[in-house]
Every structure is written in structure tokens, then in C-alpha cells.
Amino acid sequence: MEPRVVSENDVAMVGPGYDDDHYISVPIKMLHQIENVGDLGVCHMEPGAETCVFALEEEDDGTAPHQYGPCDEFYYILEGEFTVWWGKDASKLDNFYKLEKGDCAYYPTGWKYKVANTGDTAGKFLYYMSSPPGIERRFDKRS
């Protein structure tokens, strides 16, 4: 494979309002995907928008709408202000922190979390999620 450049403007948005059959709970643009390595994309969120709860756990306990398996995820905030809630129980995410432009967040295996745009303007962040070989994922559609 040769190196390549991908413009965000050339990538279709998927998710609510763009592809309603897609499992993603907020609009994203998938920029690049390498099998057994990871996915890179940009998440777009309007003020007040919130993701479903994601689980990055070895075992799927069925309590989070999206189970990504034992992987790692990173966010780099490009625009806006976000709050991330995290914990071990999908119905009680007690821990939280705020992210602003220029912040980078790391989510290791073993946690559940959700993200909301808690700012006054549209926001977006770059994400990378690892995809180790043999990983099993479950995506329930958000109702």
C-alpha cells in the first residue's frame, strides 16, 4: 500500500441524519481503517448531542449498547467543548471530565463511557480506536 492523503471533505458522513440504518449514535466521518490495527475518523456533534454508552471491555456484559471489546481509544478535540462520563456500570457513570480544543483523551480497556457536546457550539474531535486481531464487537442500534 502506498501512502495517501484523505480530505475530510471527500468522506461521507454516516450516523443519525445521514445514514439512519447505521449503528453509530452520532455523525462521524471514517477517514481510514486498517484491519487488525485500527480506525481513524472525525466525530461531529451539535450542542446537546450525546453518544450512547460504549464499553471497552474484555467480556461483554450486555449492559452497554456498543461493546467494542478489549481495545484502546483516543480523542483529540478539534473544536468545541465535551464532557465524558465513565465508569464500570453503564447505568451509573459516576466519573467525568471536560475536554476542550487541543485536549487529548485516552480510554483504555476495561471501562464504559459516553460523550456529550456540553458547549454552546458545534464540536468535532478526531478519534482513533485500536482493532486487535480476533476482537469481537457488538453494536445495538440506538432507539
Q: Name the strands of the widest sheet in spatial order.
A: 7-6-9-3-4-11
Uncertain segments: none
Provide the succession of SSEs.
Answer: EEEEEEEEEEE
The number of helical runs is 0
Strand content: 35-45%
How many individual β-strands? 11
Mean pLDDT: 92
> Mind describing the biggest β-sheet?
6 strands, mixed
Radius of gyration based on Cα positions: 15 Å
Return the CATH architecture of the domain at 50-119: Sandwich
Separation of the first and last Cα atoms:
39 Å
Structural class: mainly beta
**Helical residues, percent:** under 10%
Could you explain how this protein is built, in words?
The protein is 0% helix and 43% strand. It has 143 residues and is mostly beta strands. The protein has a domain at 50-119: Jelly Rolls, CATH 2.60.120. β1 (28-34) and β2 (38-45) form a beta hairpin. The mean pLDDT is 92.
